[in-house]
Every structure is written in C-alpha cells, then in structure tokens.
C-alpha cells in the first residue's frame, strides 16, 4: 500500500526545490500495453528486425510513453495530475528497450525553476536513459494551492 501524496502548498515551495526522483523500468510488455492504449502500433516499438532496418539500434519506447513518465514524476509530487496546467517536451534521443527481464531504466528528476505570484510553479524535468538525456526542454507548469 502506498502512502498518500500531500499536495505541496505554494507557500512551502521554493525555487531550487527538487522533486523526489523516479526510476521506471520499461519492458517490452509495457510497450505492448502502451501500443494498445495509444493505438500506436508502429513496428519500431515491437519488431527488432524492422527497427534495425530503419537505422535504430533495437526496439524503442514510444516517445509519448517517455513523456508520460515525466508527467508522472510531476503529478506524483503535486498529488494531483489535474494540477499540471501545461507540459511540453522535445524528444532528443530514443529509449532502447532490450528483450530481457530488465528492459530499460529511465531515471527522472525535477526541480522547481520558477515560482509565480499566482500559485503556478515551473518544473524543469530531466529524463535520462543510460546516463543520456532523452527529453529536452521538458517543462511543466503546475498550479499549487
């Protein structure tokens, strides 16, 4: 059973505060489930031969799945996914998902970069795979109470 998250109050948040880090193992089974939910059945996400034929090192995670992990980092911290009022990223590098028991480890961190008078805070998100950034300009705006 998980501990309920308490939404941070705007008065308690300061520029420079770090969000609790999040590490997610992405497996091939996760890619299948995401493909079914998103209806994105592009073979680069499940067919090794095809992925290699188009120049990829192997099957890769859906970019939007990787983006969603960044959203999870922020919504876990905020305690409410509805608190995210804006979120955008640039996809800079793929997450290669091997066909083994471990899959790919994506490490996510975030930091409060700006605090506005209206209760909105800007969170800069970093997502890394094998020590390299996979999301660029990952920024979420969050409305705190």
TrEMBL record:
Pfam families: MaoC_dehydratas. Residues 22-121 form the MaoC-like domain. It comes from the Bacteria. Belongs to the enoyl-CoA hydratase/isomerase family. PANTHER family: (3R)-HYDROXYACYL-ACP DEHYDRATASE SUBUNIT HADB (PTHR43841:SF3), 3-HYDROXYACYL-THIOESTER DEHYDRATASE HTDX-RELATED (PTHR43841). This is MaoC family dehydratase.
């Amino acid at each position: 059973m998980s501990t309920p998250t308490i939404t941070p109050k705007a008065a308690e948040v300061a520029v420079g505060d770090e969000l609790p880090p999040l590490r997610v193992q992405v497996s091939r089974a996760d890619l299948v489930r995401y493909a079914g939910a998103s209806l994105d059945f592009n073979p680069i996400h499940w067919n090794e031969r095809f992925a290699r034929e188009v120049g990829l090192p192997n099957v890769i995670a859906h970019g939007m799945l990787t983006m969603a992990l960044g959203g999870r980092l922020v919504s876990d911290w905020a305690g409410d996914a509805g608190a995210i009022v804006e979120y955008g990223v640039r996809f800079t590098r793929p997450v290669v998902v091997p066909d083994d028991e471990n899959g790919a480890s994506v490490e996510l961190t975030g930091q409060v970069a700006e605090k506005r008078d209206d209760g909105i805070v800007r969170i800069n998100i970093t997502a890394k795979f094998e020590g390299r950034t996979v999301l660029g300009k990952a920024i979420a705006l969050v409305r705190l109470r």
